Amino acid sequence: MFDIERWQEIFDTIRKNKLRTFLTGLSVASGIFILVILLGFGQGMQNGIEAEFKGDAATSIWVWPNRTTIEYKGLNPGRRIQLRNENFDVIENQMGDEYDSGSVLYFPRGVKVVYNNDLLVYNVAGTTGDLQPIENEYLSEGRYINQADVENNAKVAVISNKIRREVFAHVDSPLGEYLTISGAGFKIVGVFGEYGDDEGEEERIFIPITTAQLAFNGSDKLNNLNYLLPDQGSLNATVANTDRFIKEMKTYLNEYHGVSPEDDRAIRVWNPIEEAKRYYGLTGNIKFFFWFVGVCTIIAGVVGVSNIMLIVVKERTREIGIRKALGAKPWGIVAMILQESVFVTAISGFSGLIFSMAILEVVGPNVEIDYVVNPSVNFTVAFSTVIVLVVAGAIAGFFPAWHAARVHTIEALRDE
């Protein structure tokens, strides 16, 4: 039930002790403020890491050859490993049910790309249509390379948005235009884009793998094997699944190319999910540290509230004795002290919450720091933290209040 006289007493007490109340509230508000800001930057770091790995599908696997570094079965170290079409076919036959998409890349050397008598400085890569989900690319216009293009050695090309802007800005659409690649005409059938800010992947012109190998003396050579594995629902399960796939695949490739099982440099593998796990583990530790610092700050504020309530009880001992002499119940004394404690804690906590959320809302979208993108915090989490703080404030005020309620009336009236 609302008791206006009790609220008047609380406000009178606050007015009489403005500086003390302000400093107590400031310690509580700063605790919430620091915690929310730290949590916001923790989330910003996670957003930044997600953005870093957005360029390629998280569960993709990239394989490329290198030189051997260990002697094996009479074969000297330093041999250059060359991937072949057969390697891709065997992995598809033996392990095809373990991945969602599989593709290859072949980069012909010494090719010249010309459009309207202008020499273009872009890379040409032979591939298949399954590269699109592995590279996490999207289509802006037209289509991607398909199976019919591969089977028919079609002379078609897919260019990037960057090439479209830099070379074909004068036409409504580059579809149907022809590029001359080392003297052969290739019809543009599609335009792709890359997610993320890395435009390095958009320096490529894709053509069918069979056309690239046949037209540019590639024989059955490959530069990359690329795979997209299914998401297993959790980070640890996905990492374990990719590790099994990589181990089985490398066992076959090592046997085929005469590479020692201990030679990790002859056939290189890059797995974004493994990198992501390390970064997510780092951000998890940082978030834990942020929580620890924020909670310690809040605890310091709550201890300050408790100390202030002890001082209040000491100062009002005689008043409490008079109240008890006039018939005040112990729980009425407790409620009086608690109400002031909860009021100060709640006002301070919500002030710190509103101020910190406002700063994140205004400043967060404009933050431009490496690995930090749009710092923000879940309002429900922040609000729940304030509620916990208010409860903690009530607990902090309870013990001084209970001490006040147990003071003997005669001793309280004798207090000076």
Automatic annotation (TrEMBL):
Annotated ranges, domain ABC3 transporter permease C-terminal: 292-406
Origin: domain of life: Bacteria
Coiled coil location: none
Topology in membrane: Multi-pass membrane protein
Location of the MacB-like periplasmic core domain: 21-240
InterPro entries: ABC3_permease_C (IPR003838), MacB_PCD (IPR025857), Macrolide_Exporter_MacB (IPR050250)
TM region(s), chain numbering: 21-41, 288-313, 333-359, 379-399
Keywords for the protein's UniProt record, in alphabetical order: Cell membrane, Membrane, Transmembrane, Transmembrane helix
Family in the record: Belongs to the ABC-4 integral membrane protein family.
Protein known as: ABC transporter permease
Organism: Croceitalea marina
